[in-house]
Predict the structure of DUF202 domain-containing protein.
Amino acid sequence: MGFGFVIAKFQIFLHVLAHEPLSSNSLVGGVIMIVMGIATLLYGFYEYLQEEKQLNANKFEVRLTPMWVYTTLLTVLAVALVISLYISEYP
């Protein structure tokens, strides 16, 4: 989430230094990374609450499927973001 914020702000800084109009490619990429970070935070909190419930009930079960699905989804989204930013910068 912080890395997305840094990317978006650095892109603004570079355009201000170069006196160029601001393109939205890197800003969109930074915002998408921020949203992915918030989604990861919310998913982690949800998983924490589920595991805390299981521990309090003495019925803890390891669930790897949701973690793998979420990790795979985030990886695919990150790769798609990189490819789309690359294509938009170098047509």
